[in-house]
Amino acid sequence: MKRAGIPTEEFIYSGHTACPGCGALLVARYLLKVLGKNTIMNIPACCFAAIPGTFPDTCLGIPLLYNAFETTAATASGVEAALKIKGKKEKINVVGFAGDGGTADIGIQALSGAIERGHEIIYVCYDNEAYMNTGMQTSSLTPKGATTTTNPLGKKGGWRTRNKKNMMDIVAAHDIPYAATVNPSYPMDFVKKIEKAKNTKGTSYIHAYSVCPTGWRYQPELGLELGRLATETGLFPLYEFENGRYIINYKKKTKEVLEYYKLQGRFRHLSEDFIKEVQEYIDKEWQKLLVKEECSNR
Amino acid sequence: MKRLEKLVSIKDLPEAPVSNVPSLNQKTGTWRVFRPIVDKEKCIKCSICWRCCPDISIEIDNEGFPIINYDYCKGCGICAHECPKTAISMDREGK
Ligand SMILES: Cc1ncc(C[n+]2csc(CCOP(=O)(O)OP(=O)(O)O)c2C)c(N)n1
Ligand code: SF4
Ligand code: SF4
Ligand code: SF4
Ligand SMILES: [Mg+2]
């Protein structure tokens, strides 16, 4: 059954310890609504390792295996292989669920290996753009211009000077069967893509936009509005990579980067010139994505 | 595996370190600073507030109206901000 476009069933209990307005919770909530109770989650050290609560509590209505920080995709691969041997894989979804640090930095070789071996797992990166659980350190997915505790503001500036690593390009370069970006501000698009990942033979990769009021320094009620702005500015485009083809799901790039940046404390220090530079980069990336879509569908 | 209801002594611990007590015993409503209040007159029963609650603390009653569970609601205000009819107000607790 569906309500407001998404399945009604819940697999996350209230009483979890995520900060008020945490985006990771919505990512997991929508994900499990689609995957259902026959799902095993593998989670490394990250906010979502703390969110379920302290022993013996859990906010998850499904089994969860905690793994070492760098091993999410490897652990999920092992669970998948074991289920295959037991003849149970058909009925059970195996999920790797890690943060941006656990995916794009320390866990990247495990992920690369899993895709290469073609394990039937759904790997979800919830991207809150820094190492939040340990207090907002910079990751390779922290956006240009953001301050973190390892890029603190000082007299000589002090913020991240590189652009985000493009994880979708990295997994696409593995010729992965299915990869998609999702954003809880677009719930129907979100559940549709998880449905596709569920039915994919082989590895699927989901890159989820995940707001973090604590680390990004904005009022928690703005979470879903920020998500809409991220997509409407082209900072977080919604698209899929399916059997070698790119498909952009939302093409109205109507907003300026500034509108998104000005709502968050982590960008507060930036000059207009700097934001212009970011704008130019984003425009170029958007053009590149349009070309990728066009060429791959020829 | 024995399902734990309450941890009283070491004998209540499971054989392996497996968490299996639903987090429902953690009443996170105590974190709240602002309390969301639904105005049924304005509500059009769209369930958008239900959909966007990160604390799963909104239920929909038989008539289709949202009911907020103040045991768990942390007062993030997302429901109020997203409601298309501004039918939810955020009132300061203990006012
Ligand atoms: C091998 C190892 N190094 C460092 C840590 C400490 N640590 C725990 S959580 C974390 C941050 C995780 O960041 P991310 O993957 O982005 O998830 P988030 O907390 O942001 O949700 C770190 C560095 C660890 N647990 N294990
Ligand atoms: S620090 Fe950010 S990601 Fe972590 S629980 Fe809080 S809001 Fe969620
Ligand atoms: S979002 Fe607003 S209008 Fe829709 S059900 Fe909730 S309170 Fe009612
Ligand atoms: S204020 Fe936040 S936690 Fe409380 S009901 Fe609304 S969305 Fe849920
Ligand atoms: Mg992170």
From TrEMBL, chain A:
Subunit structure: Heterotetramer of one alpha, one beta, one delta and one gamma chain.
Protein name (database record): Ketoisovalerate oxidoreductase subunit VorB
Annotated CDD domains: TPP_PFOR_porB_like (cd03376)
Pfam family membership, one: TPP_enzyme_C
PANTHER family, sorted: PYRUVATE SYNTHASE SUBUNIT PORB
Domain called Thiamine pyrophosphate enzyme TPP-binding: residue spans: 66-207
GO molecular function: 3-methyl-2-oxobutanoate dehydrogenase (ferredoxin) activity; thiamine pyrophosphate binding
Residues that span the membrane, as ranges: none
Gene behind the chain: vorB
Gene Ontology process terms (BP): organic acid metabolic process; sulfur compound biosynthetic process
Main enzyme class: oxidoreductase
Keyword vocabulary terms for this entry: Oxidoreductase
Coiled coil: none
Entry EC no(s): 1.2.7.7
InterPro entries xrefs: PorB-like, THDP-binding, TPP_enzyme_TPP-bd
Signal sequence coordinates: none
Domain of life of the source: Archaea
SUPFAM superfamilies (alphabetical): Thiamin diphosphate-binding fold (THDP-binding)
Automatic annotation (TrEMBL), chain B:
Keywords per UniProt: 4Fe-4S, Electron transport, Iron, Iron-sulfur, Metal-binding, Repeat, Transport
Reported cofactor(s): [4Fe-4S] cluster
MF-aspect GO terms: 4 iron, 4 sulfur cluster binding; metal ion binding; oxidoreductase activity, acting on the aldehyde or oxo group of donors, iron-sulfur protein as acceptor
Entries under InterPro entries matching the protein: 4Fe4S_Fe-S-bd (IPR017896), 4Fe4S_Fe_S_CS (IPR017900), PorD_KorD (IPR011898)
One Pfam entry name: Fer4_21
Gene3D superfamilies: 3.30.70.20
SUPFAM superfamilies tied to this protein: 4Fe-4S ferredoxins (SSF54862)
Domain called 4Fe-4S ferredoxin-type: residue spans: 34-63, 64-93
Subunit text: Heterotetramer of one alpha, one beta, one delta and one gamma chain.
Name of protein: F420H2 dehydrogenase Fpo, FpoI subunit
Lineage: Archaea, Methanobacteriati, Methanobacteriota, Stenosarchaea group, Candidatus Methanofastidiosia
